[in-house]
Amino acid sequence: MTTTQNAAYPLETFGPYGAIPNGDGGYQIGTGNITEADFVNTSAPVSVTATATLTAAQVLNGLIIANSGVSSGAQTYTLPTVADFEAAFPSAVKVGATYTFRIVNIGTGTATAIVGTATGWTITGSLTMTIPITTGAVLVARKTGSGTWTLYRVA
Fold this sequence. Notes:
Elements: E1 46-48, E2 52-53, H1 56-61, E3 63-66, E4 75-78, H2 82-88, E5 98-105, E6 113-116, E7 121-123, E8 128-131, E9 135-145, E10 148-153
Parallel strand pairs: 1-3, 2-4, 3-5, 4-6, 7-10
Antiparallel strand pairs: 5-9, 6-8, 9-10
């Protein structure tokens, strides 16, 4: 076994920083501790009350609360154009890039939330996607070509 005892930072100490912990805190490398919960940071949800065209920033927030305080009627939430979405999401340059976000409909009565398309989008199944009251949807956007994305409802 070769050691680096005379080096400024012996390899055994992982340079000026300690080894990545394999217990509480830190990131897991390799198999890790599979019984630990996997937490991620999520921004505060964006609340949209009535029919609106969503901005790229709202979609990229990851969690949209729809129909806050609305009790009747269908409210349509139109996606931003693909050009606006890609301008705010420059790392999504390759075909096959995906982004997952959620919409929760907290409306009451008959206040459904409808996700509508804008230029460059295709929604699988129909031209709109309806989310009934007191439910939510997990949506996956996938880049399918130059200036085109498809939206899938996966849950």
